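Section 4.2 – Deliverable D4.2 (structural model, holo form)

The reporting period included a commitment to supply a predicted holo structure for the target in complex with zinc ion. Inputs used:
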Amino acid sequence: MSDVRKCPTCSGKAKYSEKNGEITYSAIEDEEAFKKIVQLKKALANFTEKIKTLEAEVETLRQGQSA
Ligand SMILES: [Zn+2]
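Output (structure tokens):
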């Protein structure tokens, strides 16, 4: 079970663990940030795809008007 506490050095979210009296904090914000970046990249890829589709539609309309 992970014990999430405030990191004493960067005051960010960190997993607190104590083993043989030794306390360690491992940052979890990096993992969360990485997941967010992956999500943003996916969203951006979808968005780019939509823009391309719209551009193609606009181009088709333009050609239809000039003809
Ligand atoms: Zn920290």
